[in-house]
């Protein structure tokens, strides 16, 4: 126990909390910048098992903020490189790499057995898929996001409102690290907050972070935060996997032709702006399936379609899908 002596000595922590950590399993989705502090602090603290899900490989442009990796890791799967690093950090923690993208078709399998879920994926579609899943399963979701010099971390579900309840509408524009850039230390700060929230939950410490968001402005050097325990759950279009599209669905591909072949031969290629009075609509009994690369255009189109048609609407985030099934 000498490895954990300093944290066991923290008032209110103790040996019982350490034992809880040793029995715990955390699912960490994304092995990039946020996951760098998250994984290192969870492994260092003695969390028993870390399931690391990421489909990507290490790139040179990652290294300024994804501090789990070294130059020699370039080209290797992030999940596997992260697991190797964690094995050197603490061999008592089992690091389980999963080189795959999380999607509605595999989320239940990946979440199974986890005591907490950490969203480090930099994907709003993944965030909402995880939130919907954790709400159904009664699991805590610790989700974080950083763009530029600002970010936040919050704990949703498991007795607290879901991420969908707190953010029922998309902002006019969604940024990303690739498009808007990001500063490494800001990612480190927010990831450390995310790790602390997860450790507080797994160790059974009080006060709980459930229903709390902590924000950080790296340029102003300022923290903020608020409680969202009174947010009410809302319904909204959920995400499905590409393989779940049915032959009788009203399927729309919102991508431009240069983004890839149409998702299905029976799909229509439309834009968000096409969903106005007089637009083609599903027939009675059909389900509307709206597809795009990230899910953002599908979400926007769903908001428009819902004002024109009262039926079921679901979304598909295709990622870099190129070929017809």
Automatic annotation (TrEMBL):
<dbReference type="InterPro" id="IPR000594">
    <property type="entry name" value="ThiF_NAD_FAD-bd"/>
</dbReference>
<dbReference type="GO" id="GO:0016779">
    <property type="term" value="F:nucleotidyltransferase activity"/>
</dbReference>
<feature type="domain" description="THIF-type NAD/FAD binding fold">
    <location>
        <begin position="4"/>
        <end position="223"/>
    </location>
</feature>
<dbReference type="Pfam" id="PF00899">
    <property type="entry name" value="ThiF"/>
</dbReference>
<dbReference type="GO" id="GO:0008641">
    <property type="term" value="F:ubiquitin-like modifier activating enzyme activity"/>
</dbReference>
<dbReference type="InterPro" id="IPR045886">
    <property type="entry name" value="ThiF/MoeB/HesA"/>
</dbReference>
<protein>
    <submittedName>
        <fullName>Thiamine biosynthesis protein ThiF</fullName>
    </submittedName>
</protein>
<dbReference type="GO" id="GO:0004792">
    <property type="term" value="F:thiosulfate-cyanide sulfurtransferase activity"/>
</dbReference>
<dbReference type="GO" id="GO:0005737">
    <property type="term" value="C:cytoplasm"/>
</dbReference>
<dbReference type="InterPro" id="IPR035985">
    <property type="entry name" value="Ubiquitin-activating_enz"/>
</dbReference>
């Amino acid at each position: 126990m000498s490895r954990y002596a300093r944290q066991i000595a923290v008032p209110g922590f103790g040996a019982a909390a350490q034992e809880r950590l040793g029995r715990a399993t955390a699912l960490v989705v994304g092995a990039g910048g946020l996951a760098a502090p998250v994984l290192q602090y969870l492994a260092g603290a003695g969390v028993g098992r870390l399931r690391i899900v990421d489909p990507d490989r290490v790139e040179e442009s990652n290294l300024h903020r994804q501090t789990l990796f070294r130059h020699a890791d370039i080209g290797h799967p992030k999940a596997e490189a992260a697991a190797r690093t964690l094995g050197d950090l603490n061999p008592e923690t089992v690091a389980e790499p999963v080189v795959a993208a999380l999607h509605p078709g595999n989320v239940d399998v990946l979440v199974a057995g986890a005591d907490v879920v950490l969203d480090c994926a930099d994907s709003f579609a993944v965030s909402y898929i995880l939130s919907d899943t954790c709400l159904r399963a009664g699991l805590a979701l610790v989700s974080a996001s950083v763009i530029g010099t600002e970010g936040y971390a919050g704990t949703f579900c498991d007795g607290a409102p879901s991420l969908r309840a707190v953010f029922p509408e998309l902002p006019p524009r969604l940024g990303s690290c690739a498009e808007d850039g990001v500063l490494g230390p800001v990612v480190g700060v927010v990831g450390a907050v995310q790790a602390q929230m997860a450790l507080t939950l797994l160790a059974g410490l009080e006060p709980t972070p459930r229903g709390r968001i902590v924000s950080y402005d790296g340029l102003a050097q300022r923290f903020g935060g608020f409680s969202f325990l009174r947010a009410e759950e809302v319904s909204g279009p959920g995400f499905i996997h590409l393989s779940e599209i049915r032959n009788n669905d009203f399927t729309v591909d919102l991508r431009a032709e240069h983004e890839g072949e149409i998702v299905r031969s029976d799909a229509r290629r439309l834009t968000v702006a096409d969903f106005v009075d007089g637009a083609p609509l599903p027939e009675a009994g059909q389900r509307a399936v709206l597809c795009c690369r990230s899910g953002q255009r599908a979400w926007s189109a769903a908001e428009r379609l819902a004002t024109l048609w009262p039926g079921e609407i679901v979304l598909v985030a295709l990622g870099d899908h190129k070929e017809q099934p």
